[in-house]
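Ticket #4471: structure output looks truncated?

Reporter: J.K.
Steps to reproduce: submitted the chain below (179 residues) through the standard prediction queue, then opened the result file.
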Amino acid sequence: MVKKVVLTFATIWAGFLIVVALQPSDFRIQRSATMQAPVAEVFAQVNDFHNWETWSPWAKLDPETKKAFEGAPAGIGAIHTWAGNKMVGEGRMTLTESRPGEYIQIKLEFLKPYEPTNTSEFSFKGAGGQTTVTWAMSGHNGFVSKAFCLFMDMDKIVGGDFEKGLAQLKAVVESQPRQ
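Returned output as attached by the reporter:
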């Protein structure tokens, strides 16, 4: 009897490990929103980490978060670090590519509670005083992350945060006076 239980458990465990191993290693989460604002104004909000406090979906989760800015004031070389509660964690963003009015790429390094490094991207398409912003994050899942993603829909969780951030960005840029 014990042998059957152990064999059954071992078979289930081996099946689980195989299912996890077969999950995709790479991921991409993406959301878009259209804003009634010129592309230059929307781009400027994202290109300067100092502006993120007004629209980032994570900015207000921990009022005690310690934040620092290094490197360039905006654009390529700008760095933002943070350390907060378990909702915010600890990490570092480095702006690695900035094409005005078109594209921003950020190296996103989480330090706590876990340590992945991902790429965050913003693309901007302007037309007739409107701007469509696409916010994406991509990266690589290790074995533990693949197992975690079997039980948690990261696209839904992080995608929901992106939707909230884009809505807040929209509110910020649409409330700015136009020149």
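Triage note (M.O.): checked the attachment and the full token line is present. The first helix runs from residue 2 to 21.
Status: closed, working as intended.
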